[in-house]
Amino acid sequence: MNTVGEPDAPPSYEGACLCGATHFEVAGSLSAVVLCHCTQCRRGNGGAFNVSVVVNTAQVIFRSLATLKEYESSPGKVRAFCGVCGSPIYSRRSETPNTMRLRGGLIVDLPAPLGLRHIHRDSRWPWIDTIESAPMTPEG
Ligand SMILES: [Zn+2]
Ligand SMILES: [Zn+2]
């Protein structure tokens, strides 16, 4: 918490995998969030699409990397996951070494992004646009 007279601290966000073995902090604003519908992202995450937060690698401070594993899913593209619980952590490309895509579900209280876009939209499941009309329960 800031006190009177101190400049506003830059935002920072905590992130962790399911088991907590991989734990990180992201310093600074989060500008772009990408929703990717490609087949590789669906398989890599086990979900209908992948939520990626595009950050500069210098923004990310890993507090624990001991269990992190990397898998080269296509030439020059690496997907990282926790070797204990299997949570996807990030992806990165060798041609853009200063950028990584953190998996959005890991970040506590992910704020509304300044930029949000869908990619590989043509690869989406054809019924995905109807999910908002499915029955909803507040919990459980
Ligand atoms: Zn884990
Ligand atoms: Zn993808």
Poorly predicted sequence stretches spanning 5 or more consecutive residues: none
**Tally the helices: what do you get?**
1
How much beta, percentage-wise? 35-45%
- Number of DSSP strand runs: 10
Hetero groups bound?
A: zinc ion
Largest sheet: 7 strands, mixed
Overall 3D form: globular
Query: Strands across the major sheet, in which order?
Result: 6-7-8-9-4-3-10
Write the CATH fold name: Metal Binding Protein, Guanine Nucleotide Exchange Factor, Chain A
Describe the overall structure.
With 140 residues, the protein is mainly beta. The chain has a single domain (12-122), classed as Metal Binding Protein, Guanine Nucleotide Exchange Factor, Chain A (Beta Complex). The protein is 5% helix and 40% strand. A 7-stranded mixed beta sheet has the order 6-7-8-9-4-3-10. A hairpin with a 6-residue loop joins strand 1 and strand 2. The radius of gyration is 16 Å and the shape is globular. The chain starts with 11 loop residues before the first strand and ends in a 21-residue tail after the last strand. The model has no long low-confidence stretch (mean pLDDT 92).
